[in-house]
From TrEMBL:
Cited SUPFAM superfamilies: PRTase-like
Region Disordered, residue ranges: 1-20
Gene3D superfamilies per the UniProt record, alphabetical: 3.40.50.2020
InterPro entries: ComF/GntX_DNA_util-trans, PRTase-like, PRTase_dom
Source taxonomy: Bacteria, Bacillati, Actinomycetota, Actinomycetes, Kitasatosporales
Protein name in the entry: ComF family protein
Family: Belongs to the ComF/GntX family.
Length: 283
């Protein structure tokens, strides 16, 4: 979507310019030479300590909303505020290639999806659960090459695996692609970011066929009637990326649409408290 990485990544000004393939190799070498420490608190030992792992699931996932909320932003849920240990874990996974964090972050994301579906945590799936399609916000080709992986896709895959183990049909659908490059978001205000991203995403040909193919005469026989689309990202700040992704999907389908992220600014949670829970996923 831009020349340095995924749009929402640049809301916090992060970027990387390492050549493709070099960063993963150096990470492996450093892992052999240096002692392991927790990515969240630097405590020696495992890459993720027990306390930092607990911080990802300490709160009940809640609806979040940026201020101002852009028109067209779907209902969004988040697991934790973007601060302290969760912030460091997300950055370690995304920018430093700490791939072992994909599983715990994906598990936190799965809790967010369940909250939006109004399926209680740590309980069996309902008798006839919907089929959930997790649609990751895409990273640009240059970002994937520089980082050596696609962090949002990995999080979506981790969340889908957790949901399936709990009996909820879930799969990852990489439905979105970049239609044009955009400017670096880091120095832009919220309104400028939305203008910068307008028209930047489009459906992939395969997803377009899946979502727009002619329906059977009877809606009850259309398998898509049981689908729920959930946009996936690691972080929501201004909501610009999720709004643009939702626009692309809504041009092709009227299926219910929502979004799930691991983290959002603390103020986005505070706004939700005042809205008295009216931002539930509208299935």
């Amino acid at each position: 979507m831009h020349t340095t990485g995924k749009t929402e990544d640049l809301d916090n000004g992060s970027r990387t310019d390492a050549p493709a393939g070099a960063r993963p190799l150096w990470r492996e070498l450093l892992g052999l030479l240096l002692p392991t420490a927790c990515a969240g608190c630097d405590r020696p030992g495992a890459p993720l300590c027990r306390d930092c792992a607990a911080a990802l699931t300490a709160r009940t996932p809640r609806p979040v909303r940026p201020t101002p909320a852009p028109r067209g932003l779907p209902p969004v849920h988040a697991a934790v505020p973007y601060a302290d240990e969760p912030r460091r874990l997300l950055l370690a996974h995304k920018e430093r290639g700490a791939r072992s964090l994909a599983a715990p972050l994906g598990a936190a994301l799965a809790r967010v999806v369940r909250a939006g579906l109004e399926v209680p945590q740590d309980t069996p799936a309902p008798p006839q659960p919907p089929c959930v399609l997790l649609i990751p916000v895409p990273s640009s080709a240059s970002s994937r090459a520089a980082r050596g992986h696609d962090p949002t896709l990995r999080l979506a895959e981790g969340a889908a695996a957790v949901l399936r183990r709990a009996g909820l049909p879930a799969r990852v659908l990489p439905a979105l692609r970049h239609a044009r490059p955009v400017a670096d978001q880091a120095a832009l205000r919220a309104a400028e970011r939305h203008a910068n991203l307008s028209g930047a995403l489009a459906l992939s040909p395969a997803a377009h066929h899946l979502l727009t193919a002619p329906s059977p005469r009877s809606p009850s026989t259309d398998p898509r009637s049981h689908l729920r689309l959930v946009l996936i990202d690691d972080l929501m700040t201004t909501g610009a990326t999720l709004t643009e992704a939702a626009r692309s999907l809504r041009r092709a389908t009227c299926l219910p649409l929502a979004a799930a992220v691991v983290a959002a600014p603390r103020v986005a949670f505070e706004e939700e408290w005042e809205l008295t829970g009216n931002l539930r996923f509208r299935w």
